[in-house]
TrEMBL record:
The keyword Endoplasmic reticulum does not apply. InterPro entries: BetI_C, Homeodomain-like_sf, HTH_TetR, Tet_transcr_reg_TetR-rel_C_sf. Residues 31-50 bind DNA. PROSITE patterns: HTH_TETR_2. It comes from Streptomyces cinnamoneus (Streptoverticillium cinnamoneum). Residues 8-68 form the HTH tetR-type domain. The keyword Transcription regulation applies. Keywords: DNA-binding, Repressor, Transcription, Transcription regulation. This is HTH-type transcriptional regulator PksA. The gene is pksA.
């Protein structure tokens, strides 16, 4: 009886091979042939799942966003069953920072996509797609904090959400450049959240 192929698992394998290349050499090095070799399959096998490099890049970007969202959910539920807005935001911001090998590699891949998206209109569309959802998620928690009297009523949730994302991006870049250690970046992010949650 022929062996059943788990097609979803095969796509994940391809996406993870692409991430490994992107995190060490950048996306410009991620040709279909290179990714197939990294994934341990033939070019023909890879093309069974992705007809073009663009299709593969879009799938891998979506997959890394889902992976990051799952890591945030796991972090939040590991802390408490009924997390406060401050706890949720703290875990999300921690996940946006390169604090361990997994998050560091994920951020390197996202930076590779960012660089590609600056010059590629199609990739820019996909790279921007997740930002409104992240802003909405953060703003929703800030709004909950305002309702609970934990955040000043004069704070604009959307503005604060974008500032949190921008701060996390900047701190993450400084960690990648060895300007800050992961612990220093987390301390600064925590201090910002502490000030935000001082009504």
């Amino acid at each position: 009886m022929p062996k059943r192929v788990d097609h979803d698992e095969r796509r994940r394998t391809i996406a993870e091979a692409l991430w490994r290349i992107a995190s060490t050499r950048g996306l410009e090095s991620a040709s279909l042939r290179d990714v197939a070799a990294e994934a341990g399959m033939s070019l023909g096998q890879l093309q069974h799942y992705f007809r073009s490099r663009g299709e593969m890049l879009v799938f891998a970007l979506d997959h890394i966003n889902q992976y990051a969202a799952a890591r945030v959910r796991d972090r939040v539920t590991a802390v408490t069953d009924t997390p406060s807005p401050r706890t949720v935001l703290g875990e999300i911001v921690a996940e946006l920072l390169p604090l361990d090998d997994n998050s560091r590699n994920g951020i390197l891949v996202q930076l590779a996509y960012f660089t590609l998206a600056i010059h590629d209109e199609r990739m820019r569309h996909y790279a921007k797609e997740g930002t409104p959802a992240l802003v909405s998620l953060l703003a929703g928690q800030i709004r909950r904090g305002i309702e609970r009297g934990e955040v000043g009523a004069d704070r604009d949730p959307e503005t604060e959400a974008i500032l949190l994302i921008s701060m996390s991006d900047g701190l993450g870049n400084y960690v990648l450049l060895d300007v800050l250690t992961p612990a220093e970046a987390l301390r600064l992010a925590t201090a910002h959240l502490d000030r935000l949650f001082t009504p």
